[in-house]
Amino acid sequence: MATVVRERNDPRQYDDLADEWWDPSGAFCALHWLAAARGALVPPAARPGAVLVDVGCGGGLTAPHVAGKGYHHVGLDIGAQAARIARDHGVVAVQADAHRLPLATGAADVVVAGEILEHVDDLDTVVAEIGRVLRPGGVLVIDTLADTRVCKLLMVTIAERARVAPPGIHDPALFVDPRRLVRLCARSGIALEVHGLRPALGQGIAWLAGRRVDVAMRPTRFTNIVYQGVGVKAGG
Ligand SMILES: C[S@@+](CC[C@H](N)C(=O)[O-])C[C@H]1O[C@@H](n2cnc3c(N)ncnc32)[C@H](O)[C@@H]1O
After folding, report:
1. Pocket mutation for ligand 1, best pick of 78, 84, 141 (most atoms within 8 Å of C-beta)
2. Which domain does 67 fall in, by range?
3. How many domains are contained in the chain?
4. Who contacts 167 (Cβ-Cβ below 8 Å, separation ≥6)?
5. Which residues line ligand 1 (CB under 6 A)?
6. Could you tell me which of 57, 24, 60, 65 has the C-alpha nearest to residue 41?
7. What is the pLDDT of residues 129-152, one digit of tens each?
8. Quick one: which atom of ligand 1 is closest to the CA of 112?
9. Model-level pTM greater than 0.90?
10. What is the pLDDT of residues 209-222, one digit of tens each?
11. Residue 126 CA to ligand 1 centre (angstroms)
């Protein structure tokens, strides 16, 4: 069967790789590790009927890490296959573009945006949309890739050559400066605090040696590769 060649960062690559979403040893293995770190930052729901909006939900990998916290988990993803697979994992998932979220203003008690911001064409618009749908007092949890040389070297050049990341999945020009992200969130009244993430050293070595599939992500003060942001929207 002929392999379809896509442009760098073409989101249809995720549909091409749809069978990989839930394979912990597959192309998206690191997303499993990041989903666990993301879920750990989501607080229990503060009220009955609370809604967690998962922007760029992919195959729904965040679902097991927020299950039992009391949210209706709503997922939005530009990929039809991603939304379908997320639905199979308990997410109320809809195909939608993060630049135009099909949700009412203030609909979300929590927004999570995991590893999507480094894929979008217009970061300002997407962050403004996230800020719009988050209710006052709501919590935002983000993780993304930093706009630095070392991140581009590790996550694109080396990761793609080592087949740790699918070739062409990232456009390094879209990686996100954490200071810019903090400024954009502030425009929506969200005081975002950022910290870096790194793999747990021993587990990372064991993974490289093929001796384990899961690796815990640990916080670090260095935000120059993968980083998380957490913030509360003012006015709650
Ligand atoms: C790296 S994956 C992350 C998926 C999921 N958040 C996770 O961590 O497992 C990026 C996801 O963002 C989606 N995506 C990219 N651009 C998008 C856009 N403009 N609107 C909505 N989803 C988008 C892709 O289809 C893909 O599922």
Report:
1. 78
2. 12-233
3. 1
4. 160
5. 11, 14, 31, 34-35, 56-58, 61, 77-79, 82, 97-99, 114-116, 119-120
6. 65
7. 999 999 999 999 999 999 999 999
8. 6
9. yes
10. 999 999 999 999 99
11. 12
